[in-house]
Specification:
With 191 residues, this protein is mainly alpha-helical. The protein is 65% helix and 0% strand. The longest helix has 26 residues. It starts with 17 loop residues before the first helix and ends with a helix. Keywords: DNA-binding, Sigma factor, Transcription, Transcription regulation.
């Protein structure tokens, strides 16, 4: 499944309005139309990315919506429209990290942890496999989990993962290899 959808060829190029072109002569950046198309095309994949980093649907939806709001607010800084999706992915990863930090702080302040509740509509077998994978992913180091999510769920290349996380290509390979080995051991262990 391709992650980046090409822009439709039939659409005319964005012509900046007089107001846009008069603002200090700056480039227009990502247009609202392009951001809207990106939203329609990639909302679900970004939601899935957040779901692999977080554990509840409501938080995932909040993170993805906040990411689109932030990119919309900063769209003039995204000079090349083809980089909008990468900017959105990075924002989703960063907002997911922040959400996890807030949860950890909240759990420290609570006297009892909240129980995890599965949704009723998910099948029992799929739920068991999903729970096992989530437990295994949670057992990984943070960087290993991030590399595996970006590499295999978001279909990013190792170089893209390195750029997104701000680490070297060798580190991406090492974290990925160690993460897969740890997942293999965790998934084969009896529950």
């Amino acid at each position: 499944m391709p992650v980046i959808a090409p822009m439709p060829a039939a659409r005319p190029a964005h012509i900046p309005s007089q107001r846009e072109s008069s603002e200090d002569g700056m480039a227009a950046g990502t247009t609202v139309d392009h951001l809207t198309e990106t939203y329609r095309a990639h909302y679900r994949s970004l939601l899935g990315l957040a779901a692999l980093l977080l554990d509840d649907t409501a938080s995932c939806e909040d993170v993805v919506q906040e990411a689109f709001i932030r990119v919309h607010s900063a769209r003039s800084r995204v000079r090349e429209p083809e980089k909008t999706l990468a900017y959105l992915r990075q924002t989703v990863v960063n907002l997911s990290r922040s959400a996890l930090r807030r949860r950890i702080l909240g759990l420290k302040l609570l006297s009892k942890p909240m129980p995890d509740m599965a949704s009723a509509e998910e099948g029992a077998y799929e739920q068991l496999e999903r729970d096992q994978l989530i437990r295994a992913m949670r057992g990984l180091q943070r960087r290993q989990r991030e590399v595996l999510v970006l590499r295999y769920f978001a279909d990013m290349t190792e170089a893209q993962v390195a750029d997104t996380l701000g680490i070297s290509l060798g580190s991406v390979k090492a974290y990925g290899s160690r993460g897969i080995a740890a997942l293999r051991v965790a998934m084969e262990a009896p529950a």
